[in-house]
Amino acid sequence: MKTWELENVELKAKNYPETFFIPSLNERKNKKIGESVRLHFVHLLKKQDEPEAERMWVIITKERTLFSKYKGILENQPAYITELNVGDEIEFEVINIAQTIIKKGDPLWIDCSEKYALVSNMCFQKDETIRFVYREVADNNDDSGWRMFTGHENDEYANDQKNIQIVKIESLLDFDRSLFDPIKNGNYYAFERMNKKDKWEIIEDWKPSE
Known about the structure:
Layout: E1 4-6, H1 9-15, H2 25-29, E2 36-43, E3 53-62, E4 70-74, E5 89-92, E6 99-100, E7 116-120, E8 132-135, E9 143-149, H3 155-158, E10 164-168, H4 169-175, H5 180-183, E11 190-192, E12 201-202
Parallel strand pairs: 7-9
Antiparallel strand pairs: 1-2, 2-3, 2-6, 3-4, 4-5, 7-10, 8-9, 8-11, 11-12
């Protein structure tokens, strides 16, 4: 009996648009041999205290076509799914790709993709978008220094920690690819826009707080 299945991350992203982000369809459709993607292996016979799924990386060995799926080799040793081992061949579809790796040298590579940003909860509400971002000195090694808001938050809302999420930069880029333009810049920059389709503009007179 099979003890796992691959998660349909497209469906999960549709059901949880405020907290679960995946790469664009175009990015997931065009992965090449040698690239790594993250898949979620869901436990069908989960025991108490075990995770719902194991998130593991697969290196692609066969590209998808209109008539066939991707194939790849499992790069991680599962902690709970004994039916799988490092080196096993995995067949998967576009709907299963939860994350991709952008390597240094790629035009879309940025230095802080593995770090985190502070983001207002309001940014993920329906009919809202991120309109104001700035980067300050990071609080710790995991912090990118980026802070993101809709521009509609008042001081009371923005200063209440329960209204702020800690989100990985690579996940934010999956949520809104246009954030790449401000994020690729260094420290002490602030940007704004009126709406999601507008171009980001530097706020020339902005300075970080002391």
